[in-house]
């Protein structure tokens, strides 16, 4: 199936893939770190548009927070997937596929496999950044709480000292 692709069609596919990468970079750069579901939805739509037979394809992004699906999945599919790694642990998967009745594993271009791997890496980096920000905020809250407790302790000690001084 791959050998029947003309040079012009190959170039069109590369343009679709590059457009997808550009859009995904833009979505990630402008994402709301506290609400990533719209970003993941936009990534799924963009990836579906970049696939060779996009009208019959489905895209599924499976994460702990949510599962995003575009397109229709049939009962029996051929697909390629890639693990989304978050700090070297699997945080989800990204999958593209077609109905098995009409397509075989050969329907996927090598560049599409590379695209899925790249997007899995980008999503993993975004999730890592989210975790880092959340950890920084938790540490900041803890430090602020400890500062308040320290100030409260100093005030209490000052009051106790003043009461003892007046009592004697």
What's the architecture in CATH terms? 2-Layer Sandwich
What low-confidence regions span 5 or more consecutive residues with pLDDT below 50? none
- What is the beta-strand fraction? 15-25%
Radius of gyration: 26 Å
CATH class: Alpha Beta
Q: How many individual β-strands?
A: 4
Biggest β-sheet, characterized?
4 strands, antiparallel
CATH superfamily: GAF domain
Structural class, by secondary structure, is: alpha+beta
Q: Topology as H/E string?
A: HHEEEEH
Helix content: 55-70%
Q: How would you describe the overall organization of this protein?
A:
By secondary structure, the chain is of the alpha+beta class. The chain has a single domain (2-136), classed as Beta-Lactamase (2-Layer Sandwich), CATH 3.30.450.40. The chain has three helices and four strands. Helix 1 runs antiparallel to helix 2 and helix 1 packs parallel to helix 3 (110-167). The longest helix has 58 residues, at 110-167. The protein is rod-shaped and about 100 Å long.
């Amino acid at each position: 199936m791959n050998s029947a692709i003309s040079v012009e069609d190959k170039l069109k596919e590369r343009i679709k893939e590059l457009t997808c990468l550009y859009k995904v970079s833009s979505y990630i750069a402008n994402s709301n770190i506290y609400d990533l579901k719209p970003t993941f939805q936009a990534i799924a739509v963009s990836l579906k548009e970049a696939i060779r037979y996009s009208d019959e394809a489905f895209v599924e992004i499976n994460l702990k927070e949510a599962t995003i699906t575009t397109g229709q999945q049939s009962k029996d599919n051929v697909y390629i997937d890639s693990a989304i790694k978050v700090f070297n642990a699997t945080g989800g998967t990204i999958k593209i596929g077609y109905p098995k009745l009409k397509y075989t594993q050969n329907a996927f271009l090598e560049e599409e496999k590379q695209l899925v791997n790249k997007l899995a890496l980008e999503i993993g980096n975004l999730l890592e950044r989210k975790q880092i920000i959340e950890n920084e905020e938790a540490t900041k809250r803890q430090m602020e709480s400890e500062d308040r407790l320290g100030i409260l302790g100093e005030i209490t000690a000052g009051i106790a000292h003043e009461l003892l001084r007046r009592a004697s």
